[in-house]
Each structure stands twice: as structure tokens, then as C-alpha cells.
Amino acid sequence: MLQDYSAEYKAKLRTAEEAVRVVKSGDWVDYTSSLGKPTLLDEALAKRKEELLDVKIRGNLLSGPIHVAECDPSQEHFTYHSWHCSAYERKLCDRGLCFYIPMVFQNNAAYYEFFLHVNVVMVSVTPMDKHGYFNFSVNTGVAAPIVRTADIVILEVNENMPKVHGGYDECIHISEVDYIVEGEHAPFEYVKPAEPSDRDRVIASHIIPYLTDGVTLQLGIGSLPNALGELIAESDLKDLGMHTEFCTDAYLSLHNSGKLTNKKKSIDRGKGVFGCAMGSEELYEWLDDNHGIAAYPLEYVNRPSIISQIDNMVSINSCVAVDLYGQVAAESSGSRQISGTGGQLDFLIGASASRGGKAFICMPSTHTDRHGVVHSRIRPQFNGDIITSPRSQVYFLATEYGVINLEGRSTWERAEALISIAHPDFREELIKEAEERKIWRRSNKR
Predict the structure, then answer these.
(1) Four-residue CA torsion sign, 159, 162, 164, 168
(2) 280 and 337 in contact (C-beta within 8 Å)?
(3) Whole-angstrom distance, CA of residue 399 vs CA of residue 105
(4) If you placed Cys at 44, which of 16, 29, 160, 174 could pair as Cys (CB 3.0 to 4.6 Å)?
């Protein structure tokens, strides 16, 4: 006979208003990530603003609104922090209502285990199953290490969360929970996939020749992965695999086209592996109760030693700019925080070490500012910009003008290669800048 957990569940059940009473001034509170945001608890905690001082909250890739941030512009009562900014959190940063925490995702668990303290964690989960377990769902990548560190664990049951099968740490048992909150939730906001531009499709077309049957893909966030997904769906490629920190609709497209089978993976054979996910309702339906999918903590998904075990691992990410030395800025524009380091560096190292693996960083060659002025994304040299990936780790770089490989290349070889994929209107200027920096060989071609 199965054990009945209904009495324990009832004993731990609270309203959101009752549950947030445990938060004290000076506490560190964690909201975890993506769909794990505790919407009811966030609203209830914000209503306690006048009773609390200096409460610090961490989250990442959360959609808005985050009431504790919005309700207190003075930050006297609440201060919000993000490990990786969503579009909404980026706007909070612009308003001075969010502080970014530098990190790499492979160390997510270690940060909490060794260095950080959590007084209260509030996280959304699926309804409890008959065995007393709540599923972390698409928040599996980060949730468990945070929960293990917390003094007090509050679960917010969200009836809309997909139940995701996992490798480990995808669930929490009721015996490990202090309080449970129920309530009605609106359906998740539809996150429309970024529409690829014509330049995105051209860049993607340059990458396709580097892909072979059986490659395992890590695709970053944005319009370029969606363009690549479209082209792969139309290609003759087959038996592709998924091993990615962030699962988006691009993978659903590959699955629907019959290309994503995970049959050729060196590890986790037959399983598409991910850490977190965000996208359309159709994406969540695909992930729900799917035995062909496995969610893992990011300490596994993003660990270079794990990634390197996957033969023919191909990592494809984007960036904001690159300089002539090969340094990559992918998370900020100047000092303005846009997203975060995330797993770009993790996958650069891991995919580069994979047998047959490749790591691509992609970008359009130019961008146009709000005044209509066109700028090259290939810069002479960064000066004060935040570097996401050091020049020593950068592998392939791609723009609409082609793909280059910087592995083992000298400074002049890098400059020559980078200028070859810059927009033609900026090449002469970049050559002059390279000459001034003595990284342009006299015999280089113009």
C-alpha cells in the first residue's frame, strides 16, 4: 500500500500571505529561474514592503512583473539580483532596479554549496504526485542546489507547469518542504520565438556545411538558432542530438521535422538533455511527461568534462561584438548589461574538447543604433567592455560574410581573418587600426 501524504500536505499548506511571514529584514530570498518564479508569493512579499528592510532577492531569466523590484524604486526594502537577464530583467537593470551577478552556469551549484546563503527559497513546482514528489519542471537546471542550501523551503504549486523527466535533482519530496502554497495561475505568457532576419539565415547557411549526421547541438537563445533550426529542418541531416542549457522552440522544430532522434549520442543515448526551458505552449506540451527528454542540473549539463564526452558536439552561440584580438563580448553593450555569461564559455571549452566537436560564435557584421548610425560589430580593441569569452578560448566565428577559425592563430592571423568577415565598408578602417596595434603583417592582403 502506498503511503498517504495528504495529512502532511494539509499540515504544510499555507496562503501566500501566511507563508511570506517567515521573511525577515536582511534576509536573502531566492526565486530560482524561468517558470520557477513564484508569482503568488512574489505579490504577497511585495505587500510586506513597509514591514521589511534590506531584503535581497536572487533570480534569473524571469519574466515580469517582479513585484518586489517594481514596488520599491528606493531599494530600501527590496533589492533584486539576476544571474542572467531576461528581456524584462534587462529593463530593470536599465532602471537601476536589478544588479547582475557575474557567473558561469557550470558553477551554479557550487556557488550555493560553498559561498552563498539562502534564508528562504520560493519556487514554483508541479502538483505533488502520489509518491509525495513535486517536480521542478523546466527549472531543474538550477533549483535543487538552491533548495538544499535554504533554511526555509516554500513551494508554490503551479497547475500549468509541465512535468519533466530528469537525470537527477528534478524533484523534491514533501518531507524536505516547510510550506506549500496553492492558488490559481494564469497560463504562461507565450514567448514567441525570435523571428530570424535575412542576415540570420545567411549566417546559418554558412554553418550548415560544418554539420554532419549525428551531431549533438547546443543552441543559444535568439533569432539565429531559430534560423538554423529552419535550415536544418529543410536539410538532409539526420539523427541529431540535443544537449543544451536552454531548450527553446528551435529544438521542437527539429523534433517535428524528424531530425532530432538522440540516437547517436555518446552519453545519454536516446535522451535530449537540457537544464532550463522557455518558449511556446507547444514546447511545454512536448517536454511534458516525455521519456525522450531528460532535465539535469546545470552542474551536469554545462560541465566541460561532460560536454567533451559527447562526440561531434556542436555549440552555437551569439555575441554582441568581437575585437581584432578575438575577444568576445556577449553579455553587455559597453557597461549596459544585456543578458549574462550563461554557458557560452562552458560550451566553448567543452565542445572544443569533444572528438569531432566545434564551437561557433555568431553575429551580424553590423548594427544600427537608435540614431540610424551603422557600426561594425568587429571592433579594433575593447576598452572597458565586459569580456565574456577570452581570446584563448574562441574557436569558430561567423558573420554573414563567412566563417573563420581562430584556434592556434597568431595575432596577425586573427586580425586578417576577422577583417575578412567584417562588413566591407569597415575593412579599410579596421586594417589601419590593426596596423597601429602592430597586428597587421605588411604582406597581408588587403
Answers:
(1) negative
(2) no
(3) 26
(4) 16
- The residue with cell 552556469 is 105
Which sign, positive or negative, has the C-alpha torsion 112, 118, 123, 128?
A: positive
Contact between residue 300 and residue 306 where contact means Cβ atoms under 8 Å apart: yes
What are the structural domains of the chain?
6-181 (3.40.1080.10), 198-436 (3.40.1080.20)
- Give the pLDDT band of residue 407 (cuts 50, 70, 90): very high
Q: What are phi and psi of 286, to 5 degrees?
A: -65, -40
Interhelix angle 411-420/424-436, rounded to 10 degrees, is 160
What residues does 217 pair with on adjacent strands? 242, 314
What is the mean predicted confidence (pLDDT) over 25-50?
Answer: 97
Active-site positions read 245
pTM of the model: 0.94
The phi and psi torsions of 60 (rounded to 5 degrees) equal -165, 145
CB atoms within 10 A of CB 42: 25
Instruction: Tell me how far apart the alpha carbons of residues 135 and 126 are, in angstroms, rounded to a whole number.
Output: 5
CA distance 102 to 182: 33
Q: How far apart are CA 308 and CA 306, in angstroms?
A: 5
